[in-house]
Design brief:
alpha+beta; two-stranded antiparallel ribbon; single chain; about 75% helix
Length: about 650
């Protein structure tokens, strides 16, 4: 199998994504297990375990994870970062398919660290794409899109059309999940054309399945059926029983949506036979549920009940609680139609209890995740505080020793002033250098204290609020509209908190930063702002005459960055611009940074100044510069920061 499929990240067809490989049969797996038992070296074992992890994913995620964890231990003994990275990547894929998204994200991050060691750019951006896939599974579409766009930019820049095609496919799937069907259709049709031109039948067929799903959601059943059948024909010709079975299931679902129950039964029964042959237990249960739905529509409630009970049993064996809840909900009207009200009430109550449990688990998982992040940041802050106290003690000790040395030198110089005049001058020079170093250390210490205070007072308070807000969710009934509104509020607040935390840590970890690093930070912020807003163009211009290696104290850098953030946020909140431009230049030995928009503008004398304008002016004053705001109603606003170059 092409290694590209692995490190780029793959979903199953039933989730409207990419196909794995034609070879997922029990025959292949048995052959690999035989090879594993005969392997003579750790290197050979790692390669075979990697294959087993990969090919077991569509058959049994638990087995795939077992082989993946074994491969991690084997790969660690090889002292080969590339093979260890592949092992983490394979395990990340298995955890992702099982829904263990936190574990999957950790696996891929470990793989990415190793990829950076090996320096293989293609695999680095492939792993970045994997992380995007995990975020996509976790419904964090914005984070997924950021990762995908990074990878797509690299692959397009390096002429890697095949890898770029995979990333475009995943972007198309994001639009599909967001129910932006026209945009998803536009992107996936482009992907399908490329794959057909490359004669890549498997991937072409998987994309056809995605497109057919879009048509089905748009209720264009004719095109949906035509596209599914084209994909089915490819899988049959290639002899891929697994994906033939899943496509039979998709067609059965389509015909049920059209109330064509007999045709749905025909395809579902074909799918059952193939799913049993390849050991696809989950897909087998899905096909049984489709048959149950078909017989329900035909009013054959006895047969419908039989298939629902079989599907329920198989879902329970796989601990698929979401599907179990769906079965409970669908079985209730079947028992009602059979004149069994007690059973109908039982399954209705079972659905209600399981649905409540799943909702509480989701809330608990979110709370645990945020609490873990909070505890991690608290631990980091405590370590920083300890380091700060140690530096203070060292400075005091060295200062005392230096002072004693100075007093001794001064006394000696007074005693032998006439004889050692030349030596006295040299000692005074050394003293000035030493005092200069102490002053520099004191200034650096002040900067660290300010940054630590920012971390404690600002970020700590915000994270505490988030935990409190989520705890309050326990007292809300699981009403969809109410929970959705509160989740959105918490999600927005969390994103803002994480951004501020990253900015603060960036400043804390750097005593000095370059102009190039600051420019990159501003550019990244504008990119993220562009993704989260629509209809607004963001431009960033840095004068070519500026030296990107020019060094700035990190505390000044974060002040400049905060002024840019505040100016852009004010523009987005109040000015309704279509364009925001940020520029940096050097004029008369001074840095001039300007944030300009074409929004509504305002008259500063007629508005009540809030904390935003006050904070910008205060930061400019602390930088030893000045802030100039030029604005006029209907003609936009220009915020200009001028600071001396030192």
């Amino acid at each position: 199998m092409n290694s590209f499929y692995r490190f780029l990240g793959v979903f199953s067809i039933l989730l409207y994504t990419q196909v794995l490989s034609a070879q997922t049969t029990s025959e292949l797996l048995d052959s690999l297990k035989t090879e594993l038992s005969e392997a003579k070296t750790a290197n050979d074992r790692s390669l075979i375990l990697s294959e087993l992890t990969w090919y077991y994913v569509p058959v049994s995620q638990d087995t795939a994870i077992m082989f993946g964890e074994e491969n991690i231990e084997v790969a660690k003994s090889l002292d080969n970062p590339d093979m260890l990275a592949q092992a983490y990547s394979d395990l990340g894929y298995a955890n992702m398919e099982k829904g263990e998204l936190i574990k999957a994200r950790k696996n891929y991050q470990q793989a990415l660290e190793l990829r950076y060691e090996t320096g293989d750019s293609t695999k680095i951006y492939g792993t970045i794409t994997n992380l995007g896939s995990v975020y996509q599974r976790d419904f964090q579409s914005d984070s997924a899109m950021v990762n995908y766009l990074k990878a797509l930019s690299f692959f397009e820049r390096t002429g890697n059309d095949r890898n770029a095609d995979f990333v475009r496919n995943n972007i198309g799937v994001i639009y599909l999940e967001m129910r932006n069907y026209p945009k998803a259709l536009e992107i996936l049709q482009e992907v399908a054309e490329y794959r057909k031109a490359q004669n890549d039948d498997y991937l072409y067929a998987s994309t056809l399945t995605n497109i057919a799903s879009i048509y089905k959601n748009l209720k264009d059943y004719q095109n949906s059926e035509k596209t599914y059948l084209e994909a089915l024909q490819i899988f049959i010709e290639e002899g891929d029983d697994y994906y033939t079975a899943t496509t039979y299931n998709n067609l059965a679902t389509l015909y049920n949506a059209q109330k064509n129950s007999k045709l749905s039964i025909s395809y579902a029964e074909k799918g059952l036979e193939l799913a049993a042959q390849v050991g696809a237990d989950y897909d087998y249960a899905l096909l049984e549920s489709n048959l149950a739905q078909s017989y329900h529509d035909l009013k054959d409630y006895t047969q419908s009940r039989e298939y629902y009970l079989r599907a329920l049993s198989h879902f329970k064996a796989q601990n698929a609680e979401d599907d179990i809840a769906t079965m409970y909900l669908l079985m209730s009207p079947v028992y009602a139609a059979l004149g069994m009200p007690d059973s109908s009430a039982y399954y209705t109550e079972s659905y209600s209890e399981l649905n409540k449990k799943l909702t509480e688990q989701e809330i608990q998982q979110l709370t645990s995740d945020l609490e873990a992040r909070y505890q991690s940041e608290q631990k980091d802050a405590a370590i920083s505080q300890q380091q700060l106290e140690l530096r203070n003690k060292n400075i005091q000790l060295y200062g005392s020793l230096l002072l004693a040395l100075v007093l001794g030198v001064v006394g000696y110089l007074l005693y032998s002033q006439q004889k050692l005049k030349n030596r006295q001058l040299k000692q005074e020079g050394k003293l000035k250098v030493a005092l200069g170093q102490i002053e520099t250390q004191n200034k650096l210490q002040e900067q660290r204290v300010l940054i630590s205070r920012d971390l404690h007072d600002n970020i700590g308070a915000q994270l505490t609020f988030i935990i409190s807000a989520i705890e309050n969710l326990k007292y809300f009934d699981p009403i969809k509209d109410t929970l959705t509104h509160r989740y959105d509020s918490i999600a927005d607040f969390t994103k803002q908190t994480i951004t501020e935390l990253r900015d603060t840590i960036w400043a804390m970890n750097s005593g000095q930063i370059t102009l190039g690093q600051l420019s990159a930070r501003i550019s990244d912020y504008l990119d993220r702002a562009g993704i989260s807003t629509r209809g607004i163009t963001f431009d960033f211009d840095v004068d070519n005459s500026l030296d990107p290696d020019y060094s700035i104290v990190s505390s000044k850098g974060i002040q400049i960055y905060r002024i840019v953030q505040e100016a852009i946020q004010n523009s987005l909140k109040y000015a309704y611009p279509s364009q925001i431009m940020v520029s940096v230049a050097e004029i008369d030995n001074q840095f001039q940074l300007e944030v300009k928009d074409d929004g509504t503008g305002f008259e500063e004398s007629k508005i009540k100044q809030g904390n935003g304008l006050y904070n910008m002016r205060k930061r400019a004053e602390e930088l030893g510069g000045k802030l100039d705001i030029q604005s006029e109603n209907g003609k936009g606003t220009a915020v200009t920061l001028i600071i001396p170059k030192k």
